[in-house]
Amino acid sequence: MRLFGIDNNGKFGEYVQTPFHLDHEEAMLEDWLESNPDGILEDGKLLIVGRQVVTNLGGFIDLLGIDRQGTLVVIELKRNRTPRDTVAQAIEYASFAAQLNTEQLDSVLRSYQKDDSLNLAQYHRACFELGIDEAVAFNKDQRIVIVGQRITPEIRQTASYLRFKGITVTCVEFTYFQGDSGTRLLSQEIVVGKESGRPPQVLSGSLPTVTENEFLNSLDDSGKAVFSAILALAKERAMPIHWGTKGFSLNVDFDGNHVAVCYGYPNGSVYRQSVYTTMAGQGSMTSKTAVPEDVIKTLRAKAMSTGLFRPAGRDLKCPVNRTFTESEISALLTWLEDVAEAIRQYGLKQ
Questions:
Q1: Closest by alpha carbon to 65, among 30, 116, 117?
Q2: Domain tally, the chain
Q3: Taking the model in full, what pTM does it have?
Q4: Which tens digit of pLDDT belongs to each residue from 261-284?
């Protein structure tokens, strides 16, 4: 981003973005944040109660604050550390802060302000101008704020994940500009804290699909008899077969739009050697077709009457764990044809 000032003659004077480490120690940024804490959080004012607070493991919390609700806020400046170290250290400091009681926070405030007479509760109430009926419980929760000139994608993603898991993390980018006249500008942007952090789309590679021969070779003799008959029905009725990584789906075709009639799985799958119906759930008859609910109930009842199916969640499962008689295979094929005919008759949802 380029930033310009305009002089009295209407001329532009560019402010040059300057890394802090060139002319400014990060201690100066710490000073600025300490003096202007209200620009740190995304949702309100902040009271600074400590600086360079020594932890039980020998670390130093850059700034320690408390928000209106009494939540402790650990503010960590991103120095020349790896993203992993930055986040890990901030979490370590927050874990230390979580152990502090009110008496210890009183001590931190008194040391910070160099005033032994201060009381945190009174100081906090005065700072936030709390009403008489507003009660605050200190350090029931903790927040983390990571500040830097550049919040890397790794830090942003990790911080967003922590927010999703219920740990409040805010990431703030500060950019420093300096003009020829010596005027200094500081821009601030909260880059994690106002967004969901959820990626718009997740892509993954996939396992290779099984072939018909590989599928049949993975079956026992009982499975080969049943599934060979189903595959033969598919070829006879021109019903598309979609092969997956383990099994297949038998489909009805509507001008290129396919609706699954059943799924077939081998022994090596989590479903074992079985046929599953597709009457409920995503991509089912219920979600994709105009087949009435009473017709679906009738088809379900017919399936159960064959004695081959049993309930499996919202659908039915036909385990092929024994040798089927010719009449049982015929009953299964007839039922599959009834389902296909219902789908053809009522068509897709409009």
A1: 30
A2: 2
A3: 0.54
A4: 999 999 888 788 999 999 887 668
